[in-house]
Amino acid sequence: MSILILNGLVNGLIVGAIYAMLGLSLSLLYGVLRVVNFAHGELVIAGSFAAYVLFSVAGLPPLASAPIAAVCFFLFGWLAYYLLIPRLSRSDDPETMSFLLMYGLSITLAAAMLLAFGADSRSIDYEFNPVSLAIGPVYIATARLYALGVTIVITLMMGWFLFRTLPGKALRAAQMNREATQIVGVNIVRLSALAFAIASGIAGLTGVLIALVFPAFNPFSGAEYSIIGFIVIVLGGLGNPVGALIAGIFYGVAEQMASVFLPQALAQIVGFAILVGTILLRPTGLFGWRAMR
């Protein structure tokens, strides 16, 4: 049993790191734009399919396709912002319209992937050498270790960007007070486009990691990852990227440990129990106080 627990902890940390990437991108988008992106999971799965196409057609390994997916989805996010989001400001009820718009985008992306790839689950038949590594009594798939390494690098890069660069500091300021950021002369439209583009780029990169770590994906998998992303940002505190990172790791460990101690059917409700408990006991999230400072 102790080996099972140790395996659950290690795999929970790795899966949690991927969930943290989901939460980071979704939290960054909500913090700046105050838009709940229901299409985020579909963007993630689109990243998985991008890695699948690059591997099937060009023979490109998943890790090599990760930067390509990140750049392409960054550009897509930048374009999508200017095509979709500014129209919301001219609506009588921007908040409701943002829900409808993002839900419509979610359906559109899922339908496009269904049309292009069919309903069957796909996977990338790529193996690292060696397939797994032994760390003490725990055997870890090499693909998962590479995925963990990529998430650590991206997290460090995002930390440097948010805390050391002028655009990053402007994004943090907009998360705290959007109106005050505009008053001091920041172009909030361009800043919002940057936030949308970065969130989309991270979503595409996360999709590549999901294709690398999890056994299969299909056009309908996006809703699952959207739900996980929402649980993570609620748990970490809405609009708090640091809280989302910590909450993602916590949720991943909780999910994996639940699969050790509980039947599979019961383990799936752990995420919803965490979400409901957080809303009831601490509506601002575990780290919501930081976002409100």
Helix/strand order, N-terminal first? HHHHEEHHHHHHHHH
Task: Give the CATH level 1 class.
Answer: Mainly Alpha
CATH topology (level 3) name? ABC transporter involved in vitamin B12 uptake, BtuC
Structural class: mainly alpha
Q: CA-to-CA gap between the ends?
A: 43 Å
Number of contiguous helices: 13
Strand content: under 5%
Average pLDDT figure: 86
Low-pLDDT runs of 5+ residues are 289-293
Number of strands: 2
Strand order of the largest sheet: 1-2
Sheet of most strands: 2 strands, antiparallel
Q: Gyration radius, to the nearest Å? A: 19 Å
Number of separate structural domains: 1
So, CATH architecture?
Orthogonal Bundle
> So what's the overall shape?
globular
Tell me about this structure.
This protein has 13 helices and two strands. It has helices at residues 2-33, 40-58, 62-84, 94-117, 142-164, 166-176, 178-183, 188-213, 222-236, 241-261, 264-267, 270-281, 288-292, and strands at 132-135, 138-141. Strands 1-2 form a two-stranded antiparallel sheet. A hairpin with a 2-residue loop joins strand 1 and strand 2. The longest helix has 32 residues, at 2-33. Residues 289-293 have low confidence and may be disordered.
